[in-house]
Amino acid sequence: MTIYLDAVWLLNVLLDAMILMLTAAWTRTFLRKRRIILGAIFASVIVPLSVYFPGSPLESIPGKILFSMAVVWVTFDFQNIRMFFQKWLTFYFATFALGGGMVGFYFLLGEPFHIQDGILLTNRTGIGAGVTWIYVIVLFPLIWIFLHNRMKELFAFKLKTDQLFPVTIKMNGHSYSTQGLLDTGNQLVDPFSKRPVLLVDEPFIKQWFDHEEWQSLKTVHETFDVSLLPEKWIGRIHMIPYQGAKGISEFMLTLKPEQVICTIEDKKQIFSKVFIGIQFGQMTTDESYHCLLHPHMWIDSTSTAS
Predict the structure, then answer these.
(1) Can you tell me the distance from the alpha carbon of 191 to that of 151, in angstroms, rounded to the nearest whole number?
(2) Closest by CA position to 196, among listed 172, 178, 180, 219
(3) CA–CA separation, 271 vs 76, rounded Å?
(4) What's the N-to-C CA distance of the chain in angstroms?
(5) Integer Cα distance of 243 and 187 in angstroms
(6) pTM of the full predicted structure?
């Protein structure tokens, strides 16, 4: 089998550059192009060393660990121990993810291959031949884009779920539970009582009303004709003025609950001095939450053990 060392080296420079770019993206680190190129060239030194000096200490597990640390150090510099190990572990994760994706495509497409000294070899064509370049130039960027986008979605999902809390609303003798999202952008308060206003969407709030009551409520929302309010809800329904997205003054129908209970870190927070604003429509397509919590709720809350 013929080994085209120059081609292997160039391939590894490209692969290492993509791995370092992915590491930088996942750790949210700004890197100049020259640092990525420098790090990729340094990382690719392992190729000629493996070819000309087989069995060198760098091919041992401790040697590979130390060399990978050096790659991260050269590329990202050293700021502190915690950030260094975060980037180093992310570098390994990106390497395994991208490498595993490549091996998976080779296996899926039936291309004969094997691993030699940590380098992917095709049995029919050796290293650096056309098929390897096609796989790297076409498939590797596709895998890179796929992983990068999935991780972005995962970060966004984690950020959202970190701010989701179980919420129970007690009102008019009935109690229902859902997930609430802590919305720091929600600054809506009742201008008279200064009570914060939670926003709850239609699929969840409808549970407290029968069909006729809900239709009457929607008509009041559209016409502001308060004479149409359901009789048993008159004492609990308020209209709060607010400024809409276009700067136009509008009114929101709100309900006065008996209690709103939110569980945070195994502690139940009980809120009574709040209003519930009705959003006629659905907040999310995946229905991961039905309530937007107000950041000022916690000022007048009481806590109990879960």
Answers:
(1) 42
(2) 180
(3) 47
(4) 67
(5) 11
(6) 0.50
pLDDT in tens, the chain (306 residues): 444 455 566 677 777 888 888 888 777 777 788 888 888 888 877 777 776 777 777 777 888 888 888 888 888 887 788 888 888 888 888 877 776 666 555 555 555 444 444 444 544 444 444 445 555 666 667 766 776 676 666 555 554 555 778 899 999 889 999 988 887 777 888 888 888 999 999 999 999 998 988 998 888 888 888 788 877 888 788 888 877 656 666 788 899 999 999 887 777 888 888 999 999 988 888 778 888 888 877 665 555 544
Contact 162, 224 (CB under 8 A): no
Residue 19 CB contacts under 8 Å (≥ 6 apart), including other chains:
43, 91, 94, 95, 98
* 228 residue type, one letter: L
